[in-house]
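Researcher: Quick test of sequence recovery. Tokens follow.
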């Protein structure tokens, strides 16, 4: 089993590094060669590192696959908008990819709503930001990851029902050690024997959802490549799940320790409710920390790896010799960061899950 897991991790690392290197270098070259290619050579801009990196880590209305011969191949996604002037408007994102505007809407190039769809008038002036529930790249990636999880775990669950007291086999044998680890070493240890079972399904869902999207985000081949867990709205939703479960399952002892903490002088709780205020801030800060930790770690990893790839072309614009000299160093650091990102994908899923379990345990802890 340990050898199988090691082989899987090494295979993932190989796929992550090779695909990231090949796709990044190819797209960097395309970006560098196509930037302002209609302008005179003396006015041609160099490679824009910031634009290249943030185009990869931010959400998008279409799913860019690759660039070939100065042409971008993308999967168009449905745009769903509601405007006070036009009502509900739907169209494919490809309409805006090949036109500056469509049906009175365009993608803002700068300002508060940069890279978001906004409504404009006939003169191209900004009117308003419509209500936007479009199926973006990250939304589609979440749907795909949910389908993958269902495809994996429904057969595993049925196998347990068919063979409740028999040794696991196939996919079940691969998933069982992880499931037992989360149940016994995270849920049971953090929540306690009495209450851990009702929280285990939520913890399993959180762990595998984060882990799968972390891993898919490292592979730039469809359906991978979307920066789901590096999107702060996604991590906020995950943190809200933990917050809601903690809040609505908290027993009287949990709330008593917040509003009437034992061992605290009365004058810090009644005339000047300093301790209750601090405790309430702590209740709100915990999900905020969960949100920021996952978002920051995943996003930072992507930025660093893309930054190392970009160094080759940044120095290459200065001199081809310098670019060739820097490239081995960039590749070495990119290999290290790719392996580190793969490790972080597992660590961040574990950290988010165990902290959620600790919060659940605090909510249902018995009075001593």
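Model:
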């Amino acid at each position: 089993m340990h050898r199988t897991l090691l082989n899987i991790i090494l295979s993932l690392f190989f796929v992550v590094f090779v695909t990231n290197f090949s796709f990044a270098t190819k797209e960097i070259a395309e970006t560098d060669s196509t930037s302002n290619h209609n302008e005179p050579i003396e006015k041609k801009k160099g490679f824009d590192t910031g634009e290249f990196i943030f185009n990869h880590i931010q959400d998008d209305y279409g799913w860019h696959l690759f660039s070939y011969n100065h042409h971008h191949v993308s999967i168009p996604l449905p745009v769903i908008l509601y405007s006070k002037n036009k009502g509900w408007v739907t169209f494919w994102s490809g309409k805006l990819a090949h036109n500056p505007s469509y049906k009175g809407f365009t993608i803002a190039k700068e300002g508060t709503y940069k890279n978001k769809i906004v409504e404009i008038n006939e003169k191209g002036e900004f009117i308003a930001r419509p209500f936007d529930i479009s199926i973006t790249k990250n939304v589609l990636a979440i749907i795909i990851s949910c389908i993958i999880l269902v495809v994996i775990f429904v057969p595993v669950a049925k196998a347990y029902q068919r063979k409740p007291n028999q040794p696991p086999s196939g996919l079940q044998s691969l998933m069982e050690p992880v499931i037992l680890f989360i149940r016994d070493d995270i849920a049971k240890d953090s929540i306690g024997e009495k209450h851990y079972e009702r929280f285990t399904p939520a913890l399993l869902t959180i762990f595998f959802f984060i882990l799968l999207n972390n891993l898919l985000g490292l592979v730039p081949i469809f359906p991978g490549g979307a920066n789901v867990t590096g999107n702060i709205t996604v991590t906020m939703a995950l943190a809200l799940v933990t917050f809601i479960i903690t809040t609505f399952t908290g027993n009287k002892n949990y709330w008593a320790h917040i509003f009437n903490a034992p061992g605290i002088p009365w004058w810090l709780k009644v005339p000047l409710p300093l301790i209750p205020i601090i405790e309430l801030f702590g209740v709100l800060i915990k999900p905020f920390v969960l949100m920021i930790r996952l978002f920051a770690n995943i996003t930072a990893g992507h930025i660093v790896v893309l930054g190392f790839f970009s160094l080759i072309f940044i120095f290459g614009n200065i001199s081809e010799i310098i670019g060739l000299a820097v490239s081995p160093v960039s590749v070495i650091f990119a290999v290290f960061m790719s392996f580190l990102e793969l490790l972080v994908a597992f660590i961040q899923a574990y950290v988010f899950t165990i902290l959620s379990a600790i919060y659940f345990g605090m909510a249902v802890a018995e009075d001593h």
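Residues 12-44 have pLDDT under 50 and may be disordered.
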